[in-house]
From TrEMBL:
The chain crosses the membrane at residues 12-35. InterPro entries: RNApol_su_b/EpuA (IPR024596). Keywords: Membrane, Transmembrane, Transmembrane helix. This is DNA-directed RNA polymerase subunit beta. It comes from Pseudolactococcus insecticola.
Amino acid sequence: MFKRSIKFFGLRISLIVLVLILFAIAIILGLMLGYGGLGGKNPVSIFKPSVWHDFFSKLNAK
């Protein structure tokens, strides 16, 4: 019984980790596609802090 419960929890944890990894990949690809494909800029530059600073300053403009 103990081995069965360990196997069950191991499978569940593996599934949760897989979903989190796929979610992170989807977020990263979505950011790159949105900034590069739709925005017409370099997709890799979405990871620069200056881009995020500019985004949040526009978002919080009063």
